[in-house]
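Section 5: illustrative case.
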């Protein structure tokens, strides 16, 4: 049976969902939240205190998006006042391991990258007379 040739539309349809997922998990706040929740179940106020610069609204929106994507679970305890905890799902733990690998790579190569930037910038700066 002859194989159909992939079209540009097929590639776009395949790449778009991947791009969407990467965009979500690579966001600054998502990475920081996943890192904070990786230590174990955590309450909203603890998260808010542990992430410098995040507004309450941005924390709420990011938590909802991560929950929607299946990366976090939200447990509400029926007590007064209500207690809510967030925890990583299995796929989020897998993602966290990947983020740790990426962080390790960045740490290991930070000096090489800094040197490359200095060389690049020096080659492009205008020469003063």
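Designed sequence:
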């Amino acid at each position: 049976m002859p194989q159909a040739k992939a079209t540009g539309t097929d590639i776009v349809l395949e790449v778009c969902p991947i791009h969407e997922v990467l965009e979500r998990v690579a966001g600054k706040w998502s990475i920081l939240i996943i890192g904070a929740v990786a230590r174990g179940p955590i309450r909203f106020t603890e998260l808010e205190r542990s992430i410098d610069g995040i507004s309450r609204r941005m924390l709420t929106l990011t938590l909802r998006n991560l929950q929607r994507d299946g990366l976090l679970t939200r447990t509400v305890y029926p007590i007064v006042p209500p207690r809510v905890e967030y925890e990583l799902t299995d796929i989020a733990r897998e993602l966290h391991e990947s983020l740790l690998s990426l962080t390790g790579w960045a740490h290991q190569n930070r000096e090489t990258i800094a040197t490359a930037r200095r060389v690049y910038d020096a080659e492009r700066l205008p020469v003063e007379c």
